[in-house]
Design brief:
2 domains, 64% helix, mainly alpha, globular, 3-stranded antiparallel sheet, 3 strands
Length: 161
């Protein structure tokens, strides 16, 4: 139950900050409906594909994951930008590889695949059992993924070591 309450509070604050509408009753009502629908969907997903634990421990692990992912996204943006602006100095080297996944639960695998796709220059093509097929614009990006840091961090989120 505290998980649902925290989710409602976080979504409400996020919606208010992004929308910027604090006085229009219609827009606020639609915001409430949006938060309610999002919470309902999240609870249905959580029921079927739950992480091992909930509450403060998972929030603390997320506290370290999201800033790390944001930094990785910025670094990848810079690398792709270099390829666009200076193609002779930084040529692309597209590559497709099958990687082993550390995350075990469906929700963690989805988070892992989405995290790869969020990072510019990489796309998750297919998730199968314990493997994920990944396209990378740069060989360095693939080497980073093969290093396994992202997989380890997502695995940690689901309660793994």
């Amino acid at each position: 139950m505290p998980y649902r309450f925290l989710l409602i509070i976080a979504l409400s604050i996020f919606w208010l900050l992004l929308s910027g509408y604090w006085t229009n009753p219609l827009i606020l009502g639609l915001g409430v409906a949006s938060v309610a629908l999002s919470t309902w969907i999240a609870m249905r997903i959580e029921k079927k594909y739950a992480f091992k634990d909930k509450g403060i421990s998972i929030l603390m692990r997320q506290h370290t994951f999201w800033p790390w992912l944001l930094i990785e996204i910025v670094k990848s943006n810079i690398a792709v930008l270099k390829c666009i602006w200076m193609p002779k100095t930084y040529p692309i080297s597209p590559i497709i590889r099958q990687l082993k996944m550390k995350p075990k639960s469906n929700i963690a695998r989805t988070l892992y695949a989405n995290s790869i796709t969020l990072t510019p220059g990489t796309v998750s093509i297919e998730v199968r059992d314990e493997d994920i097929l990944v396209y990378a614009l740069l060989e360095d990006a693939m080497k980073d993924l093969e290093g396994g840091e992202m997989g380890r961090r997502v695995h940690k989120l689901e309660g793994g070591n």
